[in-house]
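Journal club side-thread
Mid-discussion, someone asked how the predicted structure for our own chain would compare to the paper's figures. Pasting it here so we can look after the session.
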Amino acid sequence: MEIVFRKAEIADAELLIEIYNSAFYSDYIKYGECPAYGKTKEMMEQSILNYPKFVILFHDKPVGCVSCKQAEAGIYEVGCLCVIPAYQGRGIGTQAIRFVTSYYKDWDKFTLITPIDKKENVRFYTEKCGFEIVSAEMDGNVKVARFVLKR
């Protein structure tokens, strides 16, 4: 399986909007809101600057994105990990987590949030990637779990 991670540039904003909208459409429909869905080009350009992103290429086709930001020394927040639905279930997300844990060499901890009732996400992060749920909180109208991966 050929997966490549390419650092996103401002010029990738429209491509990333397409990927995000495809990956997060079902969340938007289910919850009536989703911060990753429906971004404008300007919003995505700012997001690229604030949260360094990598376009995930599967056999040269853009199929996803992973973004991380250093919260403090050794602690990184995964702002987004998404794979378009047609490519989910192929190990791409697992490879993305492996990629960020090797790219950010000084990490002690990775954190992220995801809706607590999305069982497939909870299973993915805990069983396949080794994260633990450390808390639950509200993000707008959606109850989310806070996950932590420790070195």
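Post-session note: Residues 3-150 form a domain with the Aminopeptidase fold (CATH 3.40.630.30).
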